[in-house]
Amino acid sequence: MFDPSQHKPAQYDDSALPPGVYLLQLDSVELKIGKDSRRPYVRGQYKVISGPMKGRGFFSSLGIDLSMDGTAGRLSAFCAAAGISGAVDLQSEESIKRTWCHRPFKAEITQKQNGQYTNNDIKKYAMDAKSITKEERNLIAAWRAEFVQAQQFKGASDGFGDGFDGDLPESGNEDEENDDDSDEIPF
Which among 185, 14, 3 has a CA at the least distance from the CA of 105? Predict the structure, then answer.
């Protein structure tokens, strides 16, 4: 039996994340068709995997109509950042989920106004080795371990999808530290 008077209500912060650089993962996806454009897109729920905003998330859309200028480039940028090198069937929501979800990556997040609401969107993906520090790689490894443990507790697979090899963009020399203290992603 549950007695709500014995528990404090959970507080939910639905405000937009502050603009900045975050380690993220795509938590869930939904294949949709635009009302006006009639073009396909993926509506994704992204979650922060480390730092003070860990667990906070936002929704953002990614166009998948390859006949549109720039779509292939944006999709390739996401795939490079998330370590995805194999093909994905963009007409299958299940294929997109298996291939794209629960793969950590680094990106710069921005805010945009949509009427009375402030939403987040991805401005840039970190796609090269020098943009991910050794410390960030360690944070990603710790997140992966937590994620796998949670999946095993639920009796699920590791949740990383088809062909997950755990690779981010190659780090090059592991002994080199990224000395750049700025929040800019070097592209």
Answer: 185
One-letter identity of residue 59: F
**C-beta neighbour count of 79 within 10 angstroms:** 20
| Calpha distance 159→151 (Å, rounded) | 7
Label each residue of 117-182 as H, E or C: EEEEEEEEECCCHHHCCHHHHHHHHHHHHHHHHHHHHHCCCCCCCCCCCCCCCCCCCCCCCCCCCC
Whether the Cβ atoms of residue 106 and residue 132 lie closer than 8 Å to each other: yes
- pLDDT tens digit sequence for 7-55: 777 666 678 999 999 999 999 999 999 999 999 999 999 999 999 999 9
Angle, alpha carbons 140-21-82 (nearest 5°): 45
Neighbouring CB atoms inside 10 A of 37's CB total: 11
Contacts of 104 (CB under 8 A, 6+ apart): 23, 24, 25, 49, 82, 140, 143, 144, 168
Quick: pLDDT tens for 101-111.
Answer: 999 999 999 99
Rounded mean pLDDT of the chain? 84
Q: Per-domain residue ranges for the chain?
A: 20-154
Q: Are strands 20-33 and 117-125 parallel, antiparallel or unpaired?
A: unpaired
- Read off the pLDDT of residues 139-161 as tens digits, 9 standing for 90 and up: 999 999 999 888 777 665 545 44
